[in-house]
Amino acid sequence: MPLTEREKELTARYLLAHPEDIPVYLRQRRWEELAAVVEYAKQDAPQSLTHTDPALYRMLRQQVTEFRSRGWDSLNLSQLRLLAQRAR
Q1: How many angstroms separate the CA atoms of 49 and 86, rounded?
Q2: Which domain holds residue 14?
Q3: Could you tell me if 12 and 41 are in contact, meaning their C-beta atoms sit under 8 angstroms apart?
Q4: Interatomic CA distance for residues 21 and 37, integer angstroms
Q5: What was the pLDDT predicted at 88?
Q6: Which of 13, 27, 61, 77 is the most exposed place for a label (fewest CB within 10 A)?
Q7: pLDDT tens digits, one per residue of 3-19
């Protein structure tokens, strides 16, 4: 069963906060969750947070930067989606 938009966001934010779990998700072949974090990082932190919750925005920006600096943004989003679809 595919993740809802809210589940994708929560999963992505969890993995951004805990990048050490990404290799675990890879080993467990949790493709849909990995696709969610890659997509979230590509879109970056929501600009609307700059006015409503600047602290959360700064934290998410820092986490996205860390995600990218660790090289996880090189994961292929379309391939992850394809793997997730096949796994269903």
Answers
A1: 35
A2: 5-87
A3: yes
A4: 12
A5: 83
A6: 27
A7: 999 999 999 999 999 99
